[in-house]
């Protein structure tokens, strides 16, 4: 249990809410002109909790199998939780909890059935416009991610993903349409979800499939694709500021937090190097230039980045207004991991920390790590911070009384809210909001399971698509409602 140091207090206009992603909730994968995304092609796989090799392994053969798969095949993102048809019901439940903000993403392939189309798909535009109106009806501020792990399939097949420079202009066209059509509803934008993640899972982050690159080292292709995303993000930031000067555009990172496993200098150096790898691309989005250590890393591997004239200025002209991040857990780093217990985590493995408890999926719960992360980020960037993903995945069970008693989720939330308060009041961090990840149960990204549940709202569906889709309030629903109503000051239950 986290023992807070100062009285619980949050800013008057603090943005409490929840977060989802289009590919994990919408479903309706072929309705109203929506084009294919890579997420429509990722099958359910029964793998071990820590088996990231199998979770993220994907090749051209897998893609061809997905394109030929019939309705009986289990591709969970195709159905998700059918938010596409339930959004009014779900947003009403969010409003009942008292949400001030709802983080969601727009599916690029709903706006442009094919990213090369000149005109957008008006049915896709209409869906998001109605959803934003529904949010505004309840006074909920949308926080919108433009690209959340679901590149259009055409980019994968015809461009080799973000490796192609042409994708920049396609994304900028899409971003401009989003700003022009939805800017009157949206004040907070994010360009790319967990922009640092392409080196960990290049398929969903960058549309890169390794066996399509026989002419270039795959890691070189990833670095090049990352450069193109940096340019695209900077251009989008500038366009949004031109169209809506009061809008705020942020970046979004995976806030991995590591501790040295021992006080050995070698472990501390390994930890420092690991943390630099966490920050490297956010450094570009905040400071408008490549950090020297990243350039050294790339050249040291014998690679190089192909830039066009003007790219450096584009980066400088498109720096972000705030830094948002996901935070779930911490791990340890050791220079030599031989004989050490390893723990699974948020798309990475690390040395297991003997002082921390673990979730059912092996993720080590650490609210103090959230406070440390907030201080590290604010000291480094001096930008407002926004926690846009935090939560606990668990195997919830419906009791005989028809309810879900999830005190473990409430305890997790309580401890992390205390840590946020200390970061704000004791450490002077400028934190503007908090959105719990998977505020309604959704299809997990890393495992593509429904059984790994995060939500305050239970969705009656299993890993194989069986169920009624009925929404049921968990005990944590009323608890979060209480937390929000008291602006984070009443954490008793």
UniProtKB/TrEMBL annotation:
Keywords: Glycosidase, Hydrolase
SUPFAM superfamilies (UniProt xref): (Trans)glycosidases
GO molecular function: beta-glucosidase activity
InterPro entries: GH, GH_1_N_CS, Glyco_hydro_1, Glyco_hydro_1_AS
Highest taxon of source: Bacteria
Keyword Membrane listed: no
Keyword Hydrolase annotated: yes
GO biological process, one term: carbohydrate catabolic process
Transmembrane spans: none
Pfam families xref list: Glyco_hydro_1
Catalytic center residues: 389 (nucleophile)
GO cellular component, as recorded: cytosol
Coiled-coil ranges from the UniProt annotation: none
PROSITE patterns attached to this UniProt entry: GLYCOSYL_HYDROL_F1_1, GLYCOSYL_HYDROL_F1_2
Alphabetical list of PANTHER family matching this protein: 6-PHOSPHO-BETA-GLUCOSIDASE ASCB-RELATED, GLYCOSYL HYDROLASE
Homology family: Belongs to the glycosyl hydrolase 1 family.
Protein name: Family 1 glycosylhydrolase
């Amino acid at each position: 249990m986290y023992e807070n140091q100062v009285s619980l207090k949050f800013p008057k206009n603090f943005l409490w809410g929840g977060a989802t992603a289009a590919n994990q909730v919408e479903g309706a994968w072929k309705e109203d002109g929506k084009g294919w995304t890579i997420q429509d092609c990722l099958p359910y796989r029964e793998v071990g909790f820590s088996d990231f090799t199998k979770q993220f392994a994907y090749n051209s053969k897998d893609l061809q199998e997905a394109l030929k798969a019939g309705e009986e095949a289990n591709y969970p993102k195709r159905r998700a939780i059918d938010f596409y048809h339930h959004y009014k019901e779900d947003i009403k439940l969010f409003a009942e909890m008292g949400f001030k903000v709802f983080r969601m993403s727009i599916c690029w392939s709903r706006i442009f059935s094919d990213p090369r189309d000149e005109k957008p798909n008006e049915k896709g535009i209409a869906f998001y416009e109605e959803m934003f109106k529904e949010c505004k009806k309840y006074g909920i501020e949308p926080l919108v991610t433009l690209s959340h792990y679901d590149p259009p399939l055409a980019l994968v097949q015809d461009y080799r993903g973000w490796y192609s420079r042409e994708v920049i202009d396609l994304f900028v066209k899409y971003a401009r349409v989003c700003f022009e059509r939805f800017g009157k509803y949206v004040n907070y934008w994010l360009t790319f979800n967990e922009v640092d993640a392409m080196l960990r899972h290049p398929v969903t982050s960058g549309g890169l499939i390794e066996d399509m690159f026989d002419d270039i080292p795959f890691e070189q292709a990833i670095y090049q694709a990352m450069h193109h995303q940096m340019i695209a993000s900077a251009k989008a930031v500038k366009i949004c500021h031109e169209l809506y000067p009061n809008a705020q555009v942020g970046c979004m990172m995976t806030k991995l937090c590591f501790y040295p496993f021992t006080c050995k200098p070698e472990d501390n150096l390994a930890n420092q190097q690991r943390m630099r790898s966490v920050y490297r691309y956010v450094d570009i989005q905040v400071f408008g230039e490549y950090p020297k250590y990243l350039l050294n890393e790339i050249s040291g591997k014998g690679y190089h980045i192909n830039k066009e004239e003007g790219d450096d200025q584009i980066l400088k002209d498109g720096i972000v207004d705030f830094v948002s991040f996901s935070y779930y857990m911490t791990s340890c780093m050791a220079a030599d991991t031989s004989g050490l217990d390893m723990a699974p985590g948020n798309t990475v493995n690390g040395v297991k920390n003997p002082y921390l408890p673990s979730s059912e999926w092996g993720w080590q719960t650490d609210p103090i790590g959230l406070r440390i992360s907030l201080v590290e980020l604010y000291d480094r960037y001096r930008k407002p911070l926004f926690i846009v993903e935090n939560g606990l995945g668990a195997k919830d069970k419906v009791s005989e009384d028809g309810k879900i008693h999830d005190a473990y989720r409430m305890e997790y939330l309580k401890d992390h809210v205390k840590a946020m308060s200390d970061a704000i009041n004791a450490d002077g961090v400028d934190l503007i909001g908090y959105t719990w990840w998977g505020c309604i149960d959704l299809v997990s990204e890393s495992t593509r399971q429904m059984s790994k549940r995060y939500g305050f709202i239970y969705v009656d569906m299993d890993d194989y698509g069986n169920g009624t889709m009925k929404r049921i309030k968990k005990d944590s629903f009323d608890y979060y409602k209480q937390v929000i109503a008291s602006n984070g000051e009443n954490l008793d239950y």
